[in-house]
Structure to design on (688 residues):
């Protein structure tokens, strides 16, 4: 790290006695005046901040700082200088939940120095929807960061929605406890004992609700060249502390000057304010791509679900029928073309499945003619989405990645879905090394006009603003968990919009119509009462109604959305399929007028490319009624509402595919009372 010159050190030390008075006004206020943050030094020279919303403190005095192999920059600091600024602009998204995002904040940057001249800057940006905070190390050369001390000392034992902390995995069950309920015992319930950290901790985003109904979500933004952050929890102080993934003592080797990712706190007075927040995106750099016209939001189908149901295999040498054959993929392309879907995902197409430990990403199985399939799809307006599974053999993938992307570009493949199932040798999924790997894959893909969907990723942090070819990611228990596991809890889906989906686009793979697909279920009795089978030890199924599955296309956000079920199952429900055909994946406006984290969610979105509006609502195992106000519609205009709702007998564990499609007309002054069955929901399309 660079050492300031002697004169600067002397001047800084002379001023250190009145350092805290250098800028006596240490409070920063959001543009609307509702959020305030105070940055100061305590008696030990430790940088600290507090955060308040509407006058109520929600984060008590919390310490800040970095530790490198050269210096401990967490204490003994003096303030050298500070500056304030304000910014107010807007920017257009390439795709997203809002067409235009307002970027309006007040900022404060404080520059600190320790006794031997080593410096640290702390930058705060305060928006109407929350706080961004980051560190900067100036100088030349490099620095080895061994620790980061960013604290979040919560002011109460808040209701918390969380998953177990892990350096390797985000596919855990959500827990709903007070903050004090983040214990090793409850972490076992969240993670089933798999790859969790050995002390109480959570992965982000983690969402909390105060007694007064203030909603808070902690995460990070703009994760580049740095380890991903989990949060270690100390019940005695009621504090989260940043916990960086690393194999050894050095968390990140950085090139100076260097700014860390932003630590983010979204704050709002209702659950919907979390979903409507643009904080994470605003804290990322603008788009670096000169041309984004080739990035197309779309719905797609996949040669995928049939393997999860064990109807076919990824491996050509498997006992069952191989999935990725030229004939089978063409069948999916035909279905996609018939229904206006833009792509077909194909897994199991290349050598390396089964007993092999090494995938070859440029060598198709002999029953998969990639050139013929791409040409067949192009004639019908359907893109091939090629899968790259690594089975966590990252060294093998890195050795082939550029050639594999060149191969896709040459063949005319437009998108790649990557996967990293397993424990990565000598690395962690959330380590600095893997952050660099994931980001490198996105940059390399952009150079070849490939969009990317990452499974088993590091959690998203908004870099899709900078590289919008990163169109989606997994990073949670998706729908596949319903096929070969006891599945997700009934409150899983109503939790995701306020937790994982806050981080970025989420490839959940919705749209399962045949929600009772296990071999023990008679296909002729799919709509019978399954209350008994629901408790069977070996029974797997989707824990929702069909109407709930339709609503997910509006409630969950991703610019690519899969119609995940088998084509034949969609053909059995042409009316319900019509909603998936029509619903967009790219939005001009998003609002969540009514919701409770983990219980239910009502989401309203306006299509970016038409005057149509869409509504989706889902609930947990509690049946409930909601009264929907149509005040978001244009005034003095009549809309035709096509409503897809649970039938009178519907429930997630009885008659789950009982649904009703009906029409009515509404205007902006109307309201409509709608019922959601247990595990159910509704979806509405509104046309002028």
């Amino acid at each position: 790290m660079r050492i300031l010159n002697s004169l600067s050190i002397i001047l800084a030390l002379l001023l250190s006695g009145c350092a805290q008075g250098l800028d006596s006004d240490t409070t920063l206020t959001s543009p609307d005046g509702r959020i305030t943050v105070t940055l100061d030094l305590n008696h030990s020279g430790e940088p600290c901040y507090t955060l308040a919303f509407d006058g109520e403190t929600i984060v008590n005095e919390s310490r800040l700082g970095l530790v490198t192999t050269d210096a401990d920059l967490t204490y003994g600091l003096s303030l050298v200088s500070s500056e304030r600024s304000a910014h107010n602009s807007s920017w257009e998204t390439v795709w997203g939940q809002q067409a235009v995002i307002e970027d309006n904040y007040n900022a404060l940057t404080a520059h600190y120095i320790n006794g031997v001249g080593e410096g640290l800057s702390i930058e705060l940006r305060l928006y109407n929807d929350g706080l961004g905070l980051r560190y900067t190390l100036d100088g030349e050369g490099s620095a080895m960061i061994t620790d980061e001390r960013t604290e979040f000392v919560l002011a109460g034992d808040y209701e918390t929605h969380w998953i177990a902390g892990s350096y390797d995995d985000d596919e855990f069950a959500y827990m709903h406890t007070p903050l004090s309920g983040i214990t090793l015992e409850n972490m076992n319930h969240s993670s089933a004992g798999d790859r969790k950290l050995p002390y109480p901790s959570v992965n982000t985003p983690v969402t909390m609700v105060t007694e007064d109904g203030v909603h808070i979500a902690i995460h990070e933004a703009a994760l580049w060249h740095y380890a991903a952050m989990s949060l270690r929890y100390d019940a005695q102080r009621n504090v989260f502390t940043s916990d960086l993934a690393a194999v050894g003592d050095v968390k990140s080797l950085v090139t100076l000057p260097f700014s860390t990712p932003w630590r983010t706190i979204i704050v709002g007075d209702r659950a919907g304010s979390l979903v409507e927040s643009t904080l994470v995106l605003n804290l990322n750099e603008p788009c670096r791509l000169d041309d984004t016209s080739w990035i197309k939001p779309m719905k797609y189908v996949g040669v995928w679900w049939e393997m999860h149901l064990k109807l076919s295999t990824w491996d050509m040498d498997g006992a069952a029928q191989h999935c990725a054959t030229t004939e089978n993929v063409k069948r999916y392309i035909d279905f996609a073309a018939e229904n206006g879907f833009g792509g077909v995902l194909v897994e199991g197409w290349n050598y390396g499945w089964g007993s092999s430990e090494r995938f070859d990403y440029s060598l198709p199985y002999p029953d998969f003619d990639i050139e013929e399939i791409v040409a067949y799809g192009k004639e019908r307006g359907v893109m091939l989405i090629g899968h790259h599974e690594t089975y966590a053999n990252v060294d093998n993938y890195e050795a082939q990645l550029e050639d594999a992307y060149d191969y896709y570009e040459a063949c005319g493949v437009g998108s790649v879905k990557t996967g990293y199932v397993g424990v990565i040798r000598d690395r962690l999924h959330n380590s600095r090394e893997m952050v660099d790997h994931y980001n490198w894959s996105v940059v390399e893909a952009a150079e070849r006009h490939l969009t990317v969907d990452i499974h088993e990723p590091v959690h998203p942090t908004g870099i899709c603003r900078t590289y919008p070819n990163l169109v989606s990611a997994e990073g949670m228990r998706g729908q596949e968990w319903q096929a070969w596991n006891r599945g997700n809890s009934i409150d899983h889906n109503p939790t995701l919009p306020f937790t994982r989906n806050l981080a970025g686009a989420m490839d959940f793979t919705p749209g399962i119509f045949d929600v009772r697909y296990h071999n023990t279920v008679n296909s002729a009795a799919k709509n019978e009462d399954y209350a008994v089978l629901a408790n069977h030890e070996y029974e797997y199924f989707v824990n929702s109604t069909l109407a709930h599955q339709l609503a997910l296309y509006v409630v969950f956000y991703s610019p690519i959305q899969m119609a995940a079920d088998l084509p034949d199952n969609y053909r059995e429900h042409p009316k319900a399929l019509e909603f998936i055909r029509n619903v967009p994946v790219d939005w001009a406006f998003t609002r969540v007028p009514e919701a409770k984290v983990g219980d239910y969610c009502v989401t309203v979105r306006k299509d970016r490319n038409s005057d149509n509006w869409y509504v989706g609502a889902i609930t947990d195992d509690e049946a409930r009624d909601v009264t929907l106000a149509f005040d978001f519609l244009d005034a003095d205009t009549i809309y035709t509402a096509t409503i897809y709702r649970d039938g009178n007998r519907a429930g997630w564990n009885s008659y789950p595919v009982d649904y009703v499609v009906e029409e009515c007309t509404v205007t902006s002054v109307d309201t409509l009372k709608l019922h959601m069955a247990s595990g159910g929901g509704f979806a509405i399309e509104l046309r002028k």
Summary: The chain has two domains: 6-98+105-282, 298-545+558-585. Residues 298-545+558-585 form a domain with the TIM Barrel fold (CATH 3.20.20.70). The first strand starts at residue 27 and ends at 29.
